[in-house]
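Running co-folding for alpha-D-galactopyranose.
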Amino acid sequence: MHRLKTDLAITSPGRINLIGEHTDYNDGFVLPAAIDKAIILKLGKNGTKSDCRIHSQGFGKVVHIDLGNITKSNNDWENYILGVLYELMLLTDKLKGFDCTIESHLPIGSGVSSSAALECGLAFGLNELFDLGLHKWDIIQLSQRAEHNYVGTKCGIMDQFASVMGKDQHVMLLDCKTLDFEYIPINIEPYRILLLNTNVKHNLAFGEYNVRREQCHNGLTIVGKQFQIGGTFRNVTMDMLNACRSEMGDVVYNRCSYVIQENERVLEAVQALRDRKMDRFGELLYQTHKGLSEQFEVSCPELDFLVDFSKEWKEVLGARMMGGGFGGCTLNIVHKDVVEDFIEESSKVYKKKFSLELSAFQTVPSKGTSIMEKNG
Ligand code: GLA
């Protein structure tokens, strides 16, 4: 294979979310951070009008894309790229042929949002390479649209936002209704953020994620008909929801009550972080897991097992499934002295129960999508 051209290297991180799950597409609050693991994209202009050569090291092949003829592929990872190119072409005519090599240091399907990292990294890099004049929020929103339109997951804004806006040693409280956000310094010493990857792969495009979104929307429509709430979850109270319970049925009621309670938990968790009340912070994470498992029903036996196991450790303040669900990681707040032991014991019991390997990694809130290297 001929050498692909590189003018620019971009690092685009994955994300964690401390609390605020399945709230982003419900006008709610989230508390994510970018992490110290990323996808690296090397980009260069190749002098052609519209021929793009994309080499993914993980998938070991070069894909050719003609900017003049962008259509969906059967491969998800290609659709992330095609989707971004499609959205960019709607915004600008400055995009020309380019080469791109993708090197991922993010485990796929583990709930740290490798997809958003890829989308945002590509959009960010092409913006730089071709001087497209896009701002960070343009990049975030076009990447979200790429996922909606090309991959089919009707995701919220959290992942793309976290990947692009991340800041070292800070989490971000994002109001997904107004898109206002605040950086919150995170000092949780002597605790560590530990991710345990179940190695069970989910695929959000396979429907359940979109079904949850639909159910929340249906619940909101029913409450909206009865009360003047301006079509947003933020104005829905538990009393309103209770008044509509029989009309919406138990499943939709459970989804909606989870959302209302989770929003309250996010705000309380932020206060606990500010006051350094780490025990309370941990309890809130456990409550979130319970809600995700029982009311929102997006957990799975592997995730529930790991969260239950963590409760046997007094040095673990809290744990919960993270991300869309149906697999991926648990996020654990663990005292630094027991991190190694906790990983070892969790791996042992997990393997015994599910005959699966557990992978573990510690992470810290880190900077968002940025330029690593620029030639010329
Ligand atoms: C996925 C989506 C996000 C968010 C989470 C759940 O990661 O991409 O927008 O909805 O699930 O909180």
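Result summary
The first strand starts at residue 8 and ends at 17.
The mean pLDDT is 95.
Job closed.
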